[in-house]
Design goal:
The complex is a heterodimer. Chain A is an alpha/beta fold. In chain A, strands 5-4-3-2-1-9-8-7-6 form a 9-stranded parallel β-sheet. Chain A is built from 12 helices and 9 strands. Chain B is built from 18 helices and 14 strands. In chain B, the strands form 4 sheets. A 6-stranded mixed β-sheet of chain B has the order 3-4-14-9-10-13, with helices on both faces. In chain B, strands 7-6-5-8 form a 4-stranded parallel β-sheet, with helices on both faces. In chain B, strands 1-2 form a two-stranded antiparallel ribbon. In chain B, helix 5 links the parallel strand 5 and strand 6. In chain B, helix 4 packs across helix 5, helix 4 packs across helix 9 and helix 9 crosses helix 11. Chain B is globular. The chains are: A alpha/beta, B alpha/beta. At the A-B interface, helix 5 and strand 6 of A face helix 1, helix 8 and strand 11 of B.
């Protein structure tokens, strides 16, 4: 299989002996024109991969922080098409891997084939569709891979061994491990269900594993360093955006937070 | 014959399926397996049948609405009296079934969403009956519209949680219930109240309500010695409609007419008529006709009846629609209100606002259908809607009642 920015990243992480930092933000929050500079700040702080969240009216897998981010982005007029333009803008100045993180319906409306084509052209490297189960994903995977994009799927603590096999089979680039049952959001501690899930998945696949949901602090990063190939931090970043949206120091705050996480890994 | 069983992944033609985050996939498989076993377990079915009869009040009558029929001067209209069931609507059928299933799966905590409050009341009722913990999510706009039902749920021991997101109606209540379920999935059964959501919910909800159609078919054959020409039912998610339609699907001469909420008019956002105003999409786990904008964002909806105020129609209805086996029309808020008044005054039956939509379509067609036999599924009674009727029928409220009596 041909090398992508995502597989390139995980090869580099392996040779450097380092755990990667994946940063999620909702594209268009607080406004579409702000996203490229927020991504640049996260990259300066040490983020290795960016998940660009596509805002959707009914984000059932998200907790209150990301729900509010999504509302701000929708209010600012963000659509799937404008997220692709944001990606193109980021790509003009950066080679950081970009994964589109979205609910299914906006993609259905756009069309699997059209999205794969346009996303590849704008510099997106992979897609994760939160509510597309592997059982329903055949055509999507085929069309998305045909454009050289990676297809990332979720594995959860509730997933049976049979389901974990399917998730591994349909995933490329990496597997997104959901550390606990529940919606997105910051937590005090890394869930105790994370390690058993990591162990089960290791027995099934050689794909890199990224762990997310609830991971929000440098001490979480330190705890997980070396246990997975990357960690995903989302709500903590969106909260910083929410609290500093009108402040000229938003980029500085994001950069500093990313650096703290990166230094703890 | 139209094939309307879903396939083994819950597809009705291209519709239905299972579109949820991975966390919920294994729990849905667990429900599917438990339901498949319960479906052929005579003990389970016997207990359900007994509760349906001795607790809920089945079978419900099929009543010949003589004065309404004569007033309209056309079709002979029968009314399937689901409004006479315990808790005041058909919703109890499915709640009894799913509560038995939850008990079988060892889940003691039940969550539900509710729009008009009827499903919430029915859920709170069965939780009281089985001694289960009950949490009901309800949009704050719907709590305002259906205050009495909120109180009924609390009286029954349920915890009613107001949802302040989005349009603060049924859609947002389902999203919030799904977030609860995703979090507490080990201990909790999500008692979904309509023929919506991921497989096996549309199948399971339909099965639990198909007793409506099975009874109606037997009753009309007894009364008229023939099948009806048309059956009318309102369609929000579509549980009462699929319940009465399903046993008649093989009877090709019987026209199945689903009535959606036409709201204030045909502009997107003013109604909940998914077939005329929507296109296929995914919401809350199922693929079906959806009211959405050009970017795939789910539209806001409006209906005077909270129970029809939802952006997606149940997937089996989408399939029956595309097959041409059922027909879907819409009725406006105003027409539903007029129908409610006519039924109240000719038959002494005050319908729920949801059911009034089905009544309105039957009223529209009956005058030119002499010799035909109609059945209206009267899914619920109007007690819960008195505040809305009063708000919208101000002239009645202002009449001096003493003078009127003489």
């Amino acid at each position: 299989m041909k090398s992508t920015r995502i597989s390139g990243l995980f090869e580099r992480l392996r040779s450097e002996g380092r755990t990667g930092l994946i940063a999620y933000l909702t594209a268009g929050d607080p406004a579409p024109e702000r996203t490229p500079s927020l991504v640049a700040a996260l990259e300066r702080g040490g983020a290795d991969l960016i998940e660009l969240g596509v805002p959707f009216s009914d984000p059932i897998a998200d907790g209150p922080v990301i729900q509010r981010g999504v509302e701000r982005a929708l209010k600012a007029g963000t659509t799937l098409a404008s997220v692709l333009e944001i990606a193109a803008e980021i790509r003009r100045r950066s080679e950081i891997p970009l994964v589109l993180f979205t609910y299914l319906n906006p993609v259905l409306k756009y069309g699997f084939e059209a999205l794969a084509r346009d996303a590849a052209a704008k510099g997106i490297d992979g897609c994760l569709l939160t509510d597309l189960s592997v059982e329903e994903a055949g055509r999507y995977v085929e069309m998305t891979r045909a454009q050289g994009l990676d297809t990332v799927f979720l594995a959860a603590p509730t997933s049976t061994p049979e389901r974990l096999k399917l998730v591994a089979q349909y995933s490329s680039g990496f597997v997104y491990m959901v550390s606990r049952t529940g919606v997105t959001g910051e937590r005090e501690k890394v869930s105790s269900s994370a390690q058993p899930l990591i162990n089960s998945m290791r027995a099934i696949t050689n794909l890199p594993l990224a762990l997310g949901f609830g991971i929000s602090r440098p001490e979480h990063a330190a705890e997980l360093s070396g246990k997975v190939e990357a960690i995903v931090v989302g709500s903590a970043i969106v909260r910083i955006i929410e609290q500093n949206a009108d402040s000229p120091s938003l980029e500085t705050c994001l950069e500093a937070f990313a650096r703290e996480l990166r230094n703890a890994l | 014959m139209t094939i309307s069983q879903p396939d083994d992944r819950g597809h009705f033609g291209p519709y239905g399926g299972r579109f949820v985050p991975e966390v919920l996939m294994a729990p849905l498989e667990e429900i599917e397996a438990a339901y498949a076993a319960a479906r052929c377990d005579e003990g389970f079915q016997a207990e359900l049948r007994d509760l349906m009869e001795s607790y809920a009040g089945r079978p419900t009558p099929l009543y010949y609405a003589k004065r309404l029929s004569e007033t309209l001067g056309g079709a002979r209209i029968y009314i399937k009296r689901e409004d006479l069931l315990h808790t005041g609507a058909h919703k109890i059928n499915n709640c009894l079934g799913q509560a038995l299933l939850a008990r079988r799966m060892g889940k003691r905590r039940i969550i539900a969403e509710t729009g008009a409050g009827q499903h919430g009341v029915a859920t709170a009722t069965v939780c009281a009956l089985f001694g289960m913990e009950c949490v009901v999510y309800m949009g704050e706009e719907d709590m305002r519209r259906q205050r009495l039902n909120v109180f009924r749920m609390r009286l029954l021991g349920a915890n009613v949680v107001g949802v302040t997101n989005g349009s603060r109606t049924l859609k947002d209540a389902i999203s919030e219930a799904m977030r609860d379920w995703v979090t507490n999935v080990e201990t909790t059964h999500y008692l979904l109240g309509s023929a919506l959501g991921a497989h096996p919910y549309p199948l399971m909800v339909r099965d639990f309500h198909s007793v409506i159609g099975t009874e109606a078919r037997r009753q009309i054959l007894e009364r008229e010695n023939r099948l009806p020409d048309a059956i009318f039912a309102c369609v929000g998610g579509g549980s009462n409609a699929i319940g009465i339609f399903h046993p008649f699907v093989p009877d090709e001469t019987v026209r199945l007419i689903g009535v959606e909420a036409g709201g204030r008019g045909p502009k997107l956002g003013d109604h909940a008529a998914r077939f005329s105003g929507g296109s296929p999409g995914v919401l809350h786990g199922a693929y079906s006709y959806l009211l959405q904008d050009d970017d795939g964002q789910v539209s806001l909806t409006h209906s005077i009846s909270a129970g029809l105020d939802y952006a997606l129609v149940g997937p089996e209805h989408a399939w029956l629609h595309d097959q041409g086996r059922a027909e879907y029309v819409s009725v406006t808020d105003k027409e539903a209100l007029e129908a409610a008044q006519l039924l109240s005054r000719t038959e002494g039956i005050i319908p729920a606002l949801e059911s009034s939509h089905a009544v309105a379509e039957a009223i529209r067609r009956a005058p030119s259908a002499k010799g035909e036999v109609y059945i209206i599924n009267l899914s619920g009674r109007g007690d819960k809607d008195m505040d809305i009727y009063r708000e919208n029928l101000k002239d009645l409220d202002e009449v001096d009642t003493d003078l009127r009596a003489f």
